[in-house]
Amino acid sequence: MTITNAAPLMGPGERALATGRCRVGKANVGRNVAMAAASAILSGGSMMMYQQKKAFYILLTNERLLILEAHWLTGRPTMNAVADIPRYVIRVAEAKRGVTATVTLALGTNGEGLRLSFPALDKEGADNLLRALQYQAV
User: Fold this and answer.
1) Among 105, 122, 123, CA closest to 114
2) Average pLDDT, the chain
3) How far is CA 131 from the centre of its chain?
4) In this structure, are strands 101-107 and 77-86 parallel, antiparallel, or unpaired?
5) CA 92, 67, 56: angle at the middle one, nearest 5?
6) How high is the pLDDT of residue 3?
7) Based on the number of CB atoms within 10 Å of its own CB, is 121 exposed (0-12), middle (13-18) or buried (19 or more)?
8) DSSP 8-state class, residue 124
9) What is the DSSP string of 18-59?
10) Residues of the chain with pLDDT under 50
11) 118, 128, 125: which is closest to 98 by C-alpha?
């Protein structure tokens, strides 16, 4: 998805900052991260793969994060948003690079989050997202 294609989804004054294609799954942020990591290791990653089965497109703007469905036949982004998350509740909890780039986003303060797994061909999408969220790796 290019930023120019996203114009119909944005409101007045809204600017697109990053786009990408990734698999989206739930994540526990905070003290539950260790338990989630342990269960992923013990299950051989099968639990994580089950939660992150379907690919989506993401669009980060200065106001929100949109998660868009991919068309079932072409794989291109549709204009159907499955999630619309206000930007002020999003922070980067963790970022990892390996065969895939994984970004875990914390949503608010209740321990809920999203795990975005970017395939090797779209690691640039992860880099753009992290840059737009002003994440500095330690």
Assistant:
1) 105
2) 79
3) 13
4) unpaired
5) 100
6) 61
7) exposed
8) H
9) EEEEEEEEEEE-STTHHHHHHHHHHTTTHHHHHHT-SEEEEE
10) 31-52, 138
11) 118
pTM of the model: 0.76
pLDDT in tens, 35-53: 444 444 444 444 443 444 5
Contact 114, 24 (CB under 8 A): yes
Are 66 and 19 a contacting pair, CB within 8 Å?
Answer: no
Q: How many helices (H) and strands (E) does the chain have?
A: 3, 7
- Quickly tell me which residue has 């994540």 as its tokens: 27
Least Cα distance to 113 among 135, 83, 134, 137 occurs for 83
Q: Using CB atoms within 10 Å of the CB of residue 53, give its burial: 0 to 12 exposed, 13 to 18 middle, 19+ buried.
A: exposed
pLDDT, one tens digit per residue, over 68-84 is 888 878 878 888 888 89
pLDDT, residue 49, reads 39
